[in-house]
């Protein structure tokens, strides 16, 4: 069978089986578009049914999460964990608590995580999980009872050597603490079963900063290698104002850029003088407030109540750090028309296929999420190492390792892009480099 036909046949099978999962289909299509030259060089992948197995999770658990709210009413949510691929290590990936969570979202995130974790060079397989629970407006007590109920079921599927969850949207230090406490209580075991833990109970320094800092290390290195350029003097547009956005803004500013926006799901703020990060941290980390408050507190800044319009703000570099499909074709065209030449992704799959086509047409420097935002899971891998050794590295030690990992991801992506005939293509390179390692391990370990 011709290689091209093999890739198309497997994609058609995914469409037939999972046609009702648009986010998952989108993620698979984007990766498969990169894999034709890879599969052509490796006929053993087709003989071993690697692509067919690669798109099918090893396990997907879906469960009821029942808990009691502050009024004494019983609430029922859905919980998920996809254990997608364990060829190169225990399943690893975050938990997302958001009303939009469903099987398609969890599967797209888990699928991306396989390749991202492979790119870090650390021994981690791909997994992801979460719930349609919305913590917004819930008291700490309600969040705690939800997390305890969620872990009461999840604990039977995870463990330090099998599956190690972490945070994602709406799952931060508070939630990880409650989840860890419940795991310990039920299993009577003190282990590195979660990452992103508090520093007092096994967390790693620099994990909080890792995804945002890593995104900037990746962008800086790609700019250096491909353009002999840097962040210095650039105007940057950032979306989101959560964990990834805050520390991307911090690092971009330290590297000499002016960041002029951030957003939440209600709207965005534009500050022509440059975002005052202390104010954002006070609003978001201090009292879980709305970003609108920024414009009330900082003279000269503006609030706009449509978060999607953040991409109409002129910039040199765009760093999406909120959620999937936040940049569509129209937003991408606005970015290009206003002078943007670099898009590196902090959020997972923020660009629609139409947006990616615009970047490619305009020859933007495009750093795809699975490479550019791998710093978070990379430091999670370093947290697992520290837990195993029963020791803690300093902030500077972890930060230096993170920077090296992000620079290596740029180099490995560019090497793979060249090897497969697409020199300079960071997207194809990331897909190819991440895939080959996992595919070789799948072939070596036999059919299952
Ligand atoms: N945390 C991590 O280590 C990693 C995270 N990521 C990805 O980065 C992205 C952000 O995650 P993180 O910062 O951790 O999450 P947070 O929950 O800390 O912040 C999420 C931010 O995105 C906004 N947002 C969420 N959903 C939407 C939406 N549907 N439309 C518009 N804005 C939205 C939120 O606004 P609001 O408060 O109004 O909802 C908030 O500002 C996600 O795609 C995540 O998967 C990737 C790698 C690692
Ligand atoms: O730290 C982790 O295990 C996962 C981080 C994450 O969810 C992601 O990379 O999307």
Automatic annotation (TrEMBL):
Q: Which Pfam families match?
A: ELFV_dehydrog (PF00208), ELFV_dehydrog_N (PF02812)
Q: Identify the keywords attached in UniProt to this record, alphabetized.
A: NAD, Nucleotide-binding, Oxidoreductase
Domain Glutamate/phenylalanine/leucine/valine/L-tryptophan dehydrogenase C-terminal positions: 204-446
Please, one GO biological process term? glutamate biosynthetic process
SUPFAM superfamilies to which the protein is assigned, alphabetical? Aminoacid dehydrogenase-like, N-terminal domain, NAD(P)-binding Rossmann-fold domains
Binding residue positions for substrate: 92, 113, 116, 167, 380
Binding residues annotated for NAD(+), in chain numbering: 211, 243
Positions of the record's site feature: Important for catalysis: 168
Q: Which InterPro entries match?
A: Aminoacid_DH-like_N_sf (IPR046346), Glu/Leu/Phe/Val/Trp_DH (IPR006095), Glu/Leu/Phe/Val/Trp_DH_C (IPR006096), Glu/Leu/Phe/Val/Trp_DH_dimer (IPR006097), Glu/Leu/Phe/Val_DH_AS (IPR033524), Glu_DH (IPR014362), Glu_Leu_Phe_Val_DH (IPR050724), NAD(P)-bd_dom_sf (IPR036291)
Q: Which CDD domains match?
A: NAD_bind_2_Glu_DH (cd05313)
Catalytic residues (UniProt): 128
Q: Which GO terms describe its cellular component?
A: cytosol
> What are the protein's GO molecular function terms?
glutamate dehydrogenase (NADP+) activity; nucleotide binding
The UniProt entry, under PANTHER family, shows: NADP-SPECIFIC GLUTAMATE DEHYDROGENASE 1-RELATED (PTHR43571:SF1)
Record NCBIfam families:
PRK09414.1
Family, per the entry?
Answer: Belongs to the Glu/Leu/Phe/Val dehydrogenases family.
Subunit note: Homohexamer.
- Which named protein is this? Glutamate dehydrogenase
Which species?
Bifidobacterium apri
């Amino acid at each position: 069978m011709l290689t091209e036909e093999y890739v198309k046949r497997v994609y058609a099978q995914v469409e037939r089986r999972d046609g009702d999962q648009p986010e998952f289909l989108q993620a698979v299509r984007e990766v498969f578009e990169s894999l034709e030259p890879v599969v052509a060089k490796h006929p053993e992948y087709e003989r071993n049914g690697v692509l067919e197995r690669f798109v099918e999770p090893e396990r997907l658990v879906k469960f009821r999460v029942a808990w009691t709210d502050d009024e004494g009413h019983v609430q029922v949510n859905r919980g998920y964990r996809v254990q997608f691929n364990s060829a190169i290590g225990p399943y690893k990936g975050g938990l997302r608590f958001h009303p939009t969570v469903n099987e398609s979202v969890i599967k797209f995130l888990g699928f991306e995580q396989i390749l991202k974790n492979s790119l870090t060079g650390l021994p981690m397989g791909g997994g992801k999980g979460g719930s349609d629970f919305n913590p917004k407006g819930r008291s700490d007590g309600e969040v705690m009872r939800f997390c305890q109920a969620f872990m009461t079921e999840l604990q039977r599927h995870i463990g330090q050597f099998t599956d190690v969850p972490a945070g994602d949207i709406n799952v931060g230090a508070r939630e990880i603490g409650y989840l860890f406490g419940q795991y310990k209580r039920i299993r009577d075991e003190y282990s590195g079963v979660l990452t992103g833990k508090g520093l007092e109970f096994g967390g790693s320094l620099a994990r909080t900063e890792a995804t945002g800092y890593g995104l900037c290390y990746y962008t800086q290195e790609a700019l250096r290698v491909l353009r002999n350029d840097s962040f210095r003097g650039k105007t940057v547009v950032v979306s989101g104002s959560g964990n990834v956005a805050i520390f991307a803004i911090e690092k971009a500013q330290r590297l000499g850029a002016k960041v002029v926006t951030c957003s939440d799901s209600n709207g965005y703020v534009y500050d022509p003088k440059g975002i005052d990060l202390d104010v954002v941290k006070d609003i978001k980390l201090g009292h879980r407030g709305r970003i609108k408050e920024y414009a009330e507190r900082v003279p000269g800044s503006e609030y706009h109540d449509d978060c999607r319009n953040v991409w109409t703000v002129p910039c040199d570099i765009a760093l999406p750090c909120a959620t999937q499909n936040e940049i569509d074709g129209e937003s991408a065209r606005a970015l290009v028309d206003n002078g943007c030449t670099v898009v590196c992704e902090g959020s997972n799959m923020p660009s629609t296929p139409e947006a990616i086509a615009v970047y490619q047409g305009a020859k933007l420097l495009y750093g795809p999420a699975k490479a550019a935002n791998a710093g978070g899971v990379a430091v999670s891998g370093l947290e697992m190492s520290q837990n195993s050794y029963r020791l803690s590295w300093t902030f500077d030690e972890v930060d230096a390792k993170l920077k090296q990992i992000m620079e290596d991801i740029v180099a490995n992506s560019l090497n793979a892009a060249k090897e497969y005939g697409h020199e300079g293509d960071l997207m194809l390179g990331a897909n190819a480099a991440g895939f080959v390692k996992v595919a070789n391990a799948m072939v070596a370990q036999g059919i299952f």
